[in-house]
Specification:
The protein is mainly α. About 45% of the residues lie in helices and about 0% in strands. The chain has helices spanning about 1-25, 35-40, 45-50, 60-65, 80-95, 155-165, 170-175, 180-195, 205, 215-220, 225-240, 245-260. Helix 4 packs across helix 8.
């Protein structure tokens, strides 16, 4: 009996050690674990129906594979919270990559995930910030928006590269990989969604109720809800102006569309027009 207890204890401790060791490895070399919450909420047939005009890189298989490296994505114990987080994630990536217009065949909401690379400013704005000394831009490289989230700026490419490859140089030298590898493409979006960057919380923390705004946040109108995810992603351009840009209105509409699709209420604070950007 004592021997059996010892063996079970050894296996338990060994398992904890293995889990801890996994978390120290770059994402790409960790052992992936199927994200059953994603596959149960969103089937292949639904993916096809929701994104009939998507670019060929945005495959359902690649989305599932990328999500398998982020076990906390859609992992809340509350089913409505999981649905709401998925609706928020899909709304943001659909709007970031939309090829739709008001009279688009099938309706505006059917044209998410149409583009892989940023359509405006990508040739004029290389999105380089030389003040970010930890992630210096490489000459001749452009860090314009790529992938579902439209990952932008050298410091975001560098941080994601560290998390995924274990080296910032992989994507600082070759940012184009985000637009070429389907799994890496989706992983860039999920990584951004899951990763807080001070003073910003992560979008995941916002949608799961884990973010507790400070008194300064509250005084600037930054409160939990879908609107705060918009603030994290593009607050400098879309939030705190007292009124919304057309694309921001579309972003809200996408969120309500997906909430309705997954049969979950959108919750409070969907908009960010009265939220000052983080850092202010």
């Amino acid at each position: 009996m004592l021997r059996r207890i010892f063996v079970l204890l050894f296996l338990y401790v060994g398992g904890l050690t293995l889990v801890a060791a996994q978390k120290t490895l770059p994402l790409s070399v960790r052992t992936p674990v199927q994200n059953r919450n994603l596959s149960s909420l969103l089937k292949f047939s639904q993916w096809n129906a929701l994104f009939p005009h998507r670019n060929k890189i945005y495959t359902y298989k690649a989305f599932l594979q990328a999500a398998s490296y982020f076990p906390e994505f859609l992992a809340d114990k509350n089913a409505d919270v999981r649905k709401r987080e998925l609706a928020a994630f899909l709304a943001n990536i659909a709007q970031e990559t939309s090829g739709g217009w008001a009279e688009a065949p099938g309706g505006y909401f059917k044209w998410g995930l149409y583009y892989v690379e940023e359509q405006r400013d990508s040739t004029m704005n290389p999105y380089t910030d030389v003040s970010k000394k930890m992630y210096p831009p490489v000459g001749g490289r452009s860090y314009h928006g790529r992938g579902p989230k439209q990952l932008s700026w050298n410091y975001n490419y560098g941080q994601f590269s560290e998390a995924w490859f274990g080296s910032k140089d992989s994507l600082l030298n070759h940012p184009e990989l985000v637009a070429e590898d389907p799994v890496l493409c989706f992983a860039s979006a999920i990584w951004f969604w899951m990763t807080p960057q001070f003073p910003k919380p992560s979008c995941h923390e916002i949608m799961t109720g884990r973010w507790l705004p400070t008194e300064n946040d509250k005084s600037k109108g930054r409160i939990p809800g879908f609107g705060a995810t918009v603030n994290v992603i593009n607050g400098g351009l879309e939030c705190g102006k007292g009124s919304d840009l057309p694309k921001t209105v579309d972003r809200y509409a996408y969120y309500r569309f997906f909430c309705n699709y997954f049969r979950v209420l959108p919750g409070e604070n969907v908009e960010c027009s009265n939220q000052l950007p983080f850092g202010m």
